[in-house]
Amino acid sequence: MLVSRWAQETFGQRAPVIRQGIAEALSVALDNARDAQTAAQTDHTHPFGFTLMSRKFEALAEAFEDMGDVRIVKPAGSPHELVVLDGKLLFPFRYAKDRSVSVMSARIGEGRPSALVQALFNRFGPEPMMRQLALADVAPHAVPVAEALSDLPEDTSLVLIAYACNAHAGLLDAWWGEAELLDRTGSLRWHHCEEIPLAKDTGATQTSLPAAAFDQGAVPTPALNPRVSHAFRAEAASGE
Fold first, then answer.
1. pLDDT tens column, 3-44
2. Structural domains of the chain, count
3. Could you tell me if residue 94 is inside a domain?
């Protein structure tokens, strides 16, 4: 699968290796979570969820720990280690449990965004297309986390890794890109979003969706099929 212009501009010549590393790390995390679910011998999916919550961060750190320009940070109060790769902070999250939800409608988390998530978007997310009054300031409970991230360079940027999975089917698909946090419910506005080919999809061809301004009709929705790769670029109303 060809590497997009966005990926090349974001990660340079290492973009294909980084993209593959992310896919492999997610696969490892999902395998570990499914193993935990099987070992627990219960119909409840708590073992899967708790294992995945930690392993998605740990597997990313393990995948890139030997690569140059990598920094592993652990914000105060957070149990998770975050990977900063060449100034790009990688943040994985599950946006769906099946293919009924489009990644373009993804919410980051199932409830109110955590203090860590709010601080990451406020400090390292892309410039909002429109100012959201609800997010004019960091929530009070997020301030200590924001201060804990103050040692990262100002030009650090947030790269989201959104994936769909469940304990039965495993990893369904994965996407990466940049988005802004719209509100306290975790709604996102993607500035760029494209599919990450999974290990079994190495022979897939790339299909690009047309660019579209958010004020010019409905945003095209990519079909959540892990065998077809899509790229989506949402441009501001000015066309820039």
1. 999 999 999 999 999 999 999 999 999 999 999 999 999 999
2. 1
3. yes
